[in-house]
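So, can you check what follows?
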Amino acid sequence: MAESKKNYFAELNAINVSGKTEKKNGLTYLSWAWAWGEIKKMHPDTTYTIYEDADGKFYHTDGKTCWVKTGVTCNGIENIEYLPVMDHRNQPIPLSQVTSTAVNKAIQRSLTKAVARHGLGLYIYAGEDLPEEDTTADIPDVAAAPEHPNAEQVYEMIRLATSAGMTAKKLEVAYQVESLGELTMAQYEQAMKRLRQLADKRKAPKDDGCQMQMPVMEGEA
């Protein structure tokens, strides 16, 4: 058993996880489901813990922001990870705006990082492309197209919405998202086109009976 505990980290750390990662906003994420399945296949005794606060919530708070605390135990060794509850820009979400979805995402990412502390995929958090024993593999570095608007684009949308006589909240309701950063790029382009039309219409002389309309949503004819 002592020999197993001594070498299990090196065994997990040597695994190339590059094909199971994705990049978002400049950060690399390892698939939680794959990481958990891989460590359980090699070490079936592995367990995890989601630490609740004194009130039974799955997140902890200082009254301003929130974070989650998770632990993964492998070979009798527990590694604990703390992770802030963040938005799509990887910025901490204020306590008043925290959602169960954001907490769940933070838990999954935190558990993945706790698994990495046992060796599996740890190198990606150190900014490395490959594990130490697999430096000869040829993996192309292709930048993926963004899936969601960035902070600057969201700001521009809010500015344009104000010019069009609308609020960010109305746009979120229209597109059924919790924040404008969750829009797809197709939705973003559609909304920006409609907002420009509405903004131009407000600048033009108003006809009698002219009314402001909500942006056209996907699927509407």
